[in-house]
Amino acid sequence: MNGLHLIADIYSCQSEPELLVERDRLEALCVAQCSEAGLTPLGAYFYQFVDEQGEAAGVTGTVVLAESHLAIHTWPETGDATLDVYVCNFSRDNSDRARQVFQRVIGALAPQEVVRHEVIRGRLPVNEAVAS
């Protein structure tokens, strides 16, 4: 299960507002970026939230990948989002592909601020282990 998990809290997005609000647009972006990076989408599920007036009010979604997944959640009322891209590196190193998807989705959202975390998942070889 060795892999790379990229996590971002994305603030004050300057993209077209519809990207944070419309399920179809966000899903198309995420699936396309996964494919273009050389990852393998197996399916996607994106849910459209609505407000009390029945208007679109945010999206939560996942793209299931042969290599693992992408997850995204939007808060259009504040212009914010969260993004996770996790890839396994069992049969090949997918780290650069994950970083490409991560950067391109963040770039499309055009945030003013991003807090990023990169987590190595799984057991590291003994020569790469870090003493605690």
Write the layout of secondary structure elements.
Blueprint: E1 3-13, H1 18-21, H2 23-36, E2 41-50, E3 56-65, E4 68-75, E5 80-88, H3 95-109, E6 111-121
Antiparallel strand pairs: 1-5, 1-6, 2-3, 3-4, 4-5
Helix pairs in contact: 2-3
Rg over alpha carbons = 16 Å
Query: How would you write the strand order of the largest sheet?
Result: 2-3-4-5-1-6
Mean model confidence by pLDDT: 93
What is the N-to-C succession of helices and strands? EHHEEEEHE
In DSSP terms (H or I, runs of 4 or more residues), the helix count works out at: 3
Q: Helix amount, in percent? A: 25-40%
Which stretches are poorly predicted, pLDDT < 50 over at least 5 residues? none
Tell me how many strands there are.
6
In angstroms, what separates the terminal alpha carbons? Answer: 21 Å
Strand proportion: 35-45%
Shape: globular
Largest sheet, strands/sense/barrel: 6 strands, antiparallel
Which structural class is indicated by helix and strand composition?
alpha+beta
How would you describe this protein?
The protein is of the alpha+beta class and 132 residues long. 25% of the residues lie in helices and 45% in strands. The protein has helices at 18-21, 23-36, 95-109, and strands at 3-13, 41-50, 56-65, 68-75, 80-88, 111-121. Strands 2-3-4-5-1-6 form a six-stranded antiparallel β-sheet, covered by helices on one side. Strand 3 and strand 4 (68-75) form a beta hairpin. Helix 2 runs antiparallel to helix 3. The longest helix has 15 residues, at 95-109. It is globular, with a radius of gyration of 16 Å. It starts with a strand and ends in an 11-residue tail after the last strand. The mean pLDDT is 93.
